[in-house]
Amino acid sequence: MGSPAALTAQETPADLVDPFVGTLADFGQLSPAAVAPFGMMQLGPDTSPANHAGYDHAATTLLGFSHTRGVGVGCGGAGGDLMISLRYAGASGPALIDKRSETARPGIYRVRYDGGILAEMVATRGAGVLRFTLPRAGAVDLRIDPRHSYSKRLAASWASLASDDVRADLVAGTVCDQGAYHLHSASRILVNGRPIHQTLTAGAEDLATLHLTGKAGDAIEIRTGLSTVDGRGAASVRETELDNRPLATVATETRAAWNRILGRVALSGSQDQRALFYTSLYRVMETPVAIDDPDGRHRDNESIVETSPKGRTRYANWSLWDNYRTQMPLLALLQPERSADIAQSLVALYAGGKAQWSTPREPFLTVRTEHAGIALLDMHRKGIAFDADAALAGMVADSDTLKRATPDEQIEAAYDDWATAELARDLGRTDLARAFTAKAQSYRPMWRSVFQTPGVDGDVVKARGLYQGTLWQYRWAPIFDLPWMTATVGRERMLGELHHFFDAGLFNMTNEPDIQVPWMFAALGQPQASADLIHTILTKPIAHPYTNSGKLPVPFVGRSFALSPQGFADGMDDDAGGMTAWYVFATLGLYPLVPGEPWYIVTTPAFARSSIDLGNGRTLTIQRSGRENGRITRASLNGRPLPNFRVQHADLLIGGTLEVTAR
Q: By C-alpha distance, which of 268, 276, 264 is closest to 610?
């Protein structure tokens, strides 16, 4: 078997990424915005109509370009801060997009609109450059809207309107308006690379305007930094991360940063296969975001200014209910060094009593933080260092705040309590572990009553107060308690009910509550059933009958993941890398079935050969012998058989070859 396909200078992982995937209508809720790995800055287009990230690939009307947005999140999204537009004076009607000119790659987006104006933008972690190039001479109006937002705009004020340092202080609702985030920006306006020393005028709704007269080919550039702390911090971000470097230089540096991240996985396979893989991995590596200013300052989620110790980074922008199952474990595997800072940032949330969604004083747009303790247990057991004692104390206190009214809330709280018990056990806190194990198991009578034999409402979305799912879909949610579920139901009956679940079309790939279920067959001794299901989900159109609020009269039939602007099934959000991480794991032939336990189910990989750079000179090669859709007969790690098709995380980190044989 040959080595993973060599990448030419024109075909690096970053060059294979297509940021337009998942940007059409309600398919993915993604944006082609320029962004760096784990970056606050998401500088991209705002269109009408738009998805939750401000953009719709089918739209032809441009509103402007804003600096922040969530990554495939629900409700109405969040972000859209500081929208900038430029049009010729007196222009009437909508600003039309020249779709043929529109291009995007990681870190850069460009488009022509409104009769030939060229807009180009690049991003670093916390800063961005937006450049307009004029196609003809004339007067133009540059407008900056501080009140534009995808969520509720709670406050916006100008601290400075001087063109050399335009500063804004912004407050907006977090996703679903469950809390609020506070953000500061500092922008510098240049014409042909030189400052213009003018003052913008603020009018109705705080819209700031600058009137300019330009020649054909003139470049009007806005360089902006973002900070969670204050305007001075935002200006420092701008000057440190951008300095006076040309747009093309910034684009090259961000492309290199993406290649360092994405290039830790090398693949064989067709160009389209690799493109969809790297596009998915690109979305995984956008969140959470690093929020430190150059001096290490940041605000916590109570708006207190803190300074990260030298060599450490604070992260924010959480969507843990969505991605604790997949994205967080994938970061632990592919980004263990960064995961230590992510874990410590999660621990910090507990300091003042962690909100399940968000506080009124978040440092950046965010969604929700349920199941942080499960993510922390998972990282702890994978050797990622953080203050586990502080985490345990926070998890213990958090347990009393968990909702336990509905059947799904009882299961989810039980999973959190199980994680607390397991971390306590790992830390030698035997009495605490015993108490929380009992608390975690208290859901079991309810499960036997409600879920062991789902009733006539078993396929009704939101039945009995469930959140975005059915009884059948939540039936499998106590994956942490799989041995008990299996013993209670009986293995053979459990397998029969799993087959019924898929044969009857009860599975929902468009939301997270049951996305682990295809791997449960392998966990119960039927690896072929898992392999067949996963191959079907990865490669074939399937029926998707469910939405978050009900069932469609006619199911959407299509690919769950595709290399196209549609990209996902109808109504399927990427959910901050939750779904794209599922795809990455599935194509590699690994899956973390029980977050909190450091092992993976092994199944047939989509690629004949892939390799993961584990750091410190170690490489894991995943090799498939035989057909992608063949009969899975054997799995081994460095020649040692894996009879249960399970592999320990620690064993993978040694490196070597994981081989799966499919005849």
A: 268
